[in-house]
Amino acid sequence: MGKEIPAFCGGTPVRDTKLFYGHQYIDEADIQAVVDVLKSDYLTCGPKIGELEEKLCQVTGAKYAVACSNGTAALHMACMAAGIGAGDEVITTPITFAASANCALYCGARPVFADIDEETYNIDPQSVAEKVNGKTKAVVAVDFTGQSVELDELLAVCREKGLVFIEDGAHVIGTKYKGRANGSIADMTTFSFHPVKTVTGGEGGAVLTNNEEYYKKLLLYRSHGITRDTGLLEHEPEGGWYYEQIDLGYNYRITDMQAALIISQLDKLQMFSRRRKEIVARYNEAFSKLPQIAVQKEIPESDTTRHLYILRLVPEKLKIGRKEFFDALAAENICCNVHYIPTYYFPYYQKLGFAKGICPKAEKLYEEMLSIPLYYAMTDKDVEDVIRAVTKIVEYYSLPG
Ligand SMILES: *Cc1c(COP(=O)(O)O)cnc(C)c1O
What we know:
Blueprint: H1 28-38, H2 47-60, E1 64-68, H3 71-81, E2 89-92, H4 99-106, E3 110-113, H5 125-131, E4 136-142, H6 151-161, E5 164-168, E6 176-177, E7 180-181, E8 188-192, E9 205-209, H7 212-222, E10 226-227, E11 244-245, H8 256-266, H9 269-287, E12 293-294, E13 302-303, E14 309-313, H10 322-331, H11 347-351, H12 360-368, E15 369-372, H13 380-397
Parallel strand pairs: 2-3, 2-4, 4-5, 5-8
Antiparallel strand pairs: 1-9, 6-7, 6-13, 8-9, 10-11, 12-14, 14-15
Helix pairs in contact: 1-8, 2-8, 3-4, 3-7, 9-13
The chain binds pyridoxal-5'-phosphate (PLP).
């Protein structure tokens, strides 16, 4: 394995089996939880959905949770609940998965990209404030890599300008901001339970909120805009079968199998969190000694459960760029990824009229970064292999001075 790839630095690869940047961890309890649902009466719309929602409220301290099919659906529902529509603008970061901006497009609104802070890589509240105009309706802020965005600063901008604050918390589960779990602070927070995220259901998502109005809308949008709630019906029920569609929603429901898996995974959140923190601490310790590598700044307000570990190269100190570094790591059997290509670089966004150059700090970060392996099941040896590989490449390609 791995022998067909030439080792860029020469010598034998640091390891002979491949390590990937992320991987789920499934134990016997997870498997049993899914099997139990399969043997039960409900595969969807059953008791596991409410159980998951209750658990998410417990974990985050949010008042309401609405579980749904995936993180993208969660963002779409949150934008709908915020009342975003044609002609509106929604401010977000370009250093994110495409869904953070696509959710505005789904509603007929236009995404507007604010630049990042060059040290934390999170959206810069100052840049957000500068992008606000009369059309701005909401901010979708991403807790990039799991480090909380500057919630107080962003909330202050949103409150001052009358904007809805949506936190795309796809990376953030397990993180606390000033001692409170992310998920209970923004107007709405969305989660994703995709397998590379800290907690998984295969697919899955949720919206968390303390606002009852939003909660009721989210319930409607999850299931076609259909309700049986007598408080919402426009007509007298004709009988026990009666329901009405009172708005246009979607089928964004999650199955009970997925909900059961996520519940079981949430039982391990502290364990996941502890291990991720250990790995990040070890990486930070090793990489902060290398002048060729810049370590992501940690803000003291965020007690971070990291979803991704970003290796940022210092181009002035290396003979090679990110692409060669990525290939050199692959030759050592460390298989990385890049999170993310700035959203507005994509052809679809270019055709919508987004020019390169809007967010210079985000664009510079993109040129210099890659995501190295970070997941619960990594062994100490795996972690040391990554460090050895990075160190080997850095030393081989370092520029003098
Ligand atoms: C994963 C992710 C999403 C989308 O979640 P899905 O569950 O894959 O739809 C949205 N935003 C960010 C930042 C993500 O990482």
